[in-house]
Specification:
Length: 455
């Protein structure tokens, strides 16, 4: 299940920027008239390769594949068998087919999967329905996946049926992905990527793994090299539905050494594999779910206190620091800045850390812009823009480009600034959904500057 995206609510300065609009107050989306595809914007996919060792990836696959997000254990390995088909249904948005076909092409090329889109009966159905209807069903979800049904009507007819229990599924026969019909192109794309991945492979999300979309921090928005390797291993011929976690774990080292030779030679990085307390996860979800900034800050502080007590030095500590800074009240600027700097340093030492670090650097750049530190804005955005572009995150990329343009203008490099603003527009429409929303983001960034004199 993909949580509602953090980028939509990202106030650009964790301590100083104006709040973004709530989803209910957001400008109307132009998904029908101004749709821009991932392929047109980003070209050939260039996912980051997995950085973890094969030994660590093997442990990750077991943790992702034999437990649900709720914490319930999955007793058996499960997957589809044979060639796979996928069908689109419902109110398919203009780019629904193009984004799905691009994903399936990547799965064939990178995960070596035999999967095709069809108009007939299919193993996986992606049904598009309005966001309001999704939220009435699962309030905090942008999209989700279910086993053993092929339509939203089938699910609604028996929403508590035992057939919907993933822990009882051994050989998967069919799965239903519910995706938003009226979201931005990026949100639609993100949902298709994560939910189709989980329809086919592991079902869990883990905050401690930064280089996967199977992480509710939502920093990774399209399938990564790690995700494709996991899928390729999941469908390796030496595995079979019904195997125990122990049996799968025994075969994974040989599978991964065959599929990922670079990971065999890579030494283990210092990773904290301690379980995540339910109290920490609840605090994080409460911080992200509240519409009151002071409540979000209290929950973020609770999560940070737990992370400190656990002595984590991984993604969970970094994300706790990030949210504590993100929701910090006025007057907490120095502490929030320290938290962001520490989070950036932690992410820089983690596998796949360039992407979450880019999100932190977005906030640091906003702080620097508000403080008149324009050369620092250029350095931060110069570092963050490449991973944002490479991971095809239009919302993040356009925000970074607009921050950079504002700093360039203040440095009297106006021609460069205007060129960059024009280049940011299609990425902003892709990520935020409309020309009005794109202009709102530009206005928010301009408002970070408090009338100080130009250089």
């Amino acid at each position: 299940m993909r949580r509602l995206s953090i980028i939509a609510a990202l106030a650009l300065g964790a301590c100083a920027a104006p709040q973004a609009r709530s989803p209910d107050a957001a400008p109307a989306l132009e998904v029908q008239s101004r749709a821009i595809s991932s392929a047109a914007l980003f070209g050939t996919p260039r996912p980051f390769a997995p950085e973890r060792s094969n030994a660590q990836i093997a442990e990750d696959i077991i943790a992702l594949g034999f437990r649900l997000e709720s914490g319930r254990e999955i007793p058996h390995f499960s997957r589809f068998e044979g060639p796979l088909t996928l069908r689109l249904a419902g109110a398919v948005p203009p780019l629904g087919a193009a984004e799905t076909d691009r994903l399936l092409a990547r799965m064939r090329a990178e995960a070596r999967m035999d999967i095709r889109r069809t108009d007939g009966p299919a193993n996986v159905v992606v049904e598009f329905i309005p966001r309001a209807q999704i939220r009435r069903t699962v309030p905090d979800a942008a999209c989700f996946v279910l086993p053993n049904v092929s339509s939203f009507a089938d699910f609604r007819a028996n929403p508590r049926g035992a057939h919907l229990d993933w822990t009882r599924v051994v050989t998967r026969e069919k799965a239903l992905v519910i995706a938003p019909a009226d979201a931005t192109v990026q949100e639609m794309r993100d949902c298709i990527h994560e939910e189709v991945l989980q329809a086919l492979g592991p079902l869990n999300d883990l905050y401690r793994i930064g280089e996967t979309v199977m992480n509710d921090d939502n920093f990774q928005t399209s399938l990564t090299g790690f995700d494709m390797l996991v899928l390729r291993a999941w469908y390796h011929p030496s595995l079979r539905p019904g195997m125990s976690a122990e049996a799968v774990a025994a075969r994974l080292p040989a599978i991964l050494n065959q599929l990922n030779p670079a990971g065999r030679a890579r030494g283990n990085l210092p990773l904290d594999e301690t379980p995540t307390p339910a109290a920490w996860t609840l605090a994080i979800e409460s911080a992200l779910g509240s519409r009151q900034r002071n409540r979000s800050f209290r929950f973020a502080q609770q999560a940070l206190q737990i992370a400190i007590a656990e002595e984590w030095r991984d993604e969970r500590m970094a994300f706790s620091l990030f949210l504590a800074a993100r929701f910090a009240p006025d007057g907490e600027g120095e502490r929030a800045l320290d938290a962001l700097v520490t989070a950036a340093a932690l992410y820089s030492r983690r596998p796949g850390g360039a992407v979450p670090r880019a999100h932190v650097e977005l906030h640091l750049a906003a702080q620097a812009l508000g403080a008149g530190q324009y050369p620092l804005v250029l350095r931060l955005t110069d570092n963050a823009i490449p991973p944002a572009r490479r991971t095809e995150n239009g919302a993040l990329l356009s925000s970074l480009m607009l921050l950079r343009a504002q700093a360039l203008e203040r440095l009297d490099r106006r021609a460069e600034a205007e060129t960059l603003r024009r280049q940011a527009v299609p990425f902003a429409i892709y990520g935020f959904g409309s020309t009005e929303a794109a202009q709102n983001r530009r206005d928010e960034i301009a408002a970070l500057i408090r009338n100080e004199p130009r250089n």
